[in-house]
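Hypothesis: this fold can be encoded by more than one sequence.
Test: take the C-alpha cells below, design a sequence, compare later.
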C-alpha cells in the first residue's frame, strides 16, 4: 500500500511527506528532477511531469493513495485532469486533492475556477476523494515581510470582510491525516470536502494591528489599491499570474474568505491541538529575523 505525493519538493508536499514518514507510511514522491530530491530515508523517488503521460503511468503503478497538488501555472487545469484520469485508469481509488476555499464563489479568478472544475470532475466521475479547501496561506506574507518592517505598511488587499488565514504547517498535517485515513480504510471512502481555515478571521486593519503589537511600532494597513497590487506583482511574476492574483484580491475585498460554522472546531479536534494563529506566525517571523 503506497501513498504517492505530488508537489513533493514544495512547501506543502515536503511537509506532507515528513508527516507520513513519521507515521510509518510507505511513501513515493513524484519529482521532476530526482537528483535534487532530499527526502527522509525510506521515501522512494520517481521522475515525472503532469504533462508527460507516460511518466505518470509509470509513477502511478502500484499506488493505492494519491495526494494531488498542482502549482498555480497557466495550464494547471489541464495538468490536474490528466493526473486524475491517469490515476483512475491505474485503479487508484483513494485521493486527497488540494483545492481552495470558495472556488464556487470566486468564479472569475482563474486558478480558483480551475480548481472548481477539477472538483466537478472528481464528483461527476464518482471518484473517492477528500477535497481540501484551504483559505489564504499565512506563510504567503513572508514575501511582504520587508515591506512591513521597512515601510511600516501591511500591503495585502485583505479588506474589511476578513480572511480565515491558515498556517501551511496545519494544511500539511491535515492532508497527511486525511491520506492515512483513506489509505487505512477497509474500503474506498465517499467524497468529502474540508474547509481548511485558521482560528481567526482577520481584516487588513486587524492584521496591521498584530504587526504593530509584535514589532512595537505603528504598522498601517495599505492594501486597498488593487491597481498598485497588480503592478507590484507584475515586477516579479508573469503578467497573467499577476492579473490572476489581482482578481483574487478583488474578491478578498468584495467577499472576504470566511469559514463555515464548525470549521475551526472540527479542525482543532482533528489535529488534537489548537490551530496556529496569525499572531503566532508574526511573532515567530520577528523572532527569527
Amino acid at each position: 500500500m503506497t501513498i504517492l505525493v505530488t508537489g513533493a519538493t514544495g512547501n506543502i508536499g515536503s511537509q506532507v511527506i515528513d508527516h507520513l514518514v513519521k507515521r510509518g507510511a510507505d511513501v513515493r514522491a513524484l519529482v521532476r528532477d530526482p537528483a535534487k530530491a532530499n527526502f527522509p530515508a525510506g521515501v522512494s523517488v520517481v521522475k515525472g511531469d503532469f504533462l508527460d503521460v507516460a511518466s505518470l503511468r509509470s509513477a502511478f503503478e502500484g499506488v493505492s493513495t494519491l495526494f494531488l497538488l498542482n502549482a498555480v501555472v497557466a495550464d494547471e487545469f489541464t495538468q490536474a485532469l490528466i493526473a486524475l484520469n491517469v490515476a483512475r485508469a491505474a485503479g487508484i481509488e483513494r485521493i486527497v486533492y488540494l483545492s481552495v476555499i470558495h472556488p464556487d464563489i470566486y468564479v472569475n479568478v482563474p486558478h480558483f475556477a480551475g480548481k472548481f472544475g477539477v472538483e466537478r470532475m472528481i464528483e461527476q466521475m464518482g471518484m473517492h476523494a477528500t477535497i481540501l479547501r484551504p483559505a489564504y496561506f499565512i506563510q504567503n506574507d513572508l514575501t511582504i515581510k520587508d515591506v512591513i518592517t521597512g515601510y511600516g505598511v501591511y500591503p495585502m488587499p485583505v479588506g474589511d470582510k476578513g480572511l480565515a488565514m491558515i498556517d501551511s504547517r496545519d494544511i500539511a498535517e491535515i492532508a497527511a491525516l486525511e491520506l492515512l485515513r483513506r489509505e487505512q480504510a477497509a474500503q474506498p471512502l465517499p467524497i468529502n470536502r474540508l474547509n481548511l481555515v485558521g482560528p481567526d478571521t482577520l481584516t487588513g486593519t486587524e492584521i496591521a494591528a498584530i504587526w504593530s503589537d509584535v514589532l512595537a511600532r505603528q504598522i498601517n494597513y495599505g492594501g486597498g489599491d488593487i491597481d498598485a497590487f497588480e503592478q507590484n506583482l507584475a515586477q516579479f511574476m508573469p503578467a497573467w499570474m499577476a492579473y490572476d492574483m489581482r482578481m483574487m484580491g478583488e474578491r478578498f475585498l468584495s467577499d472576504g474568505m470566511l469559514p463555515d460554522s464548525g470549521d475551526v472546531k472540527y479542525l482543532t479536534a482533528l489535529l488534537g491541538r489548537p490551530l496556529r494563529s496569525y499572531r503566532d506566525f508574526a511573532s515567530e517571523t520577528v523572532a527569527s529575523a
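The chain has a mean pLDDT of 96. The beta strands are 3-5, 27-31, 44-47, 65-68, 94-98, 129-134, 153-154, 192-196, 220-221.
Hypothesis status: open.
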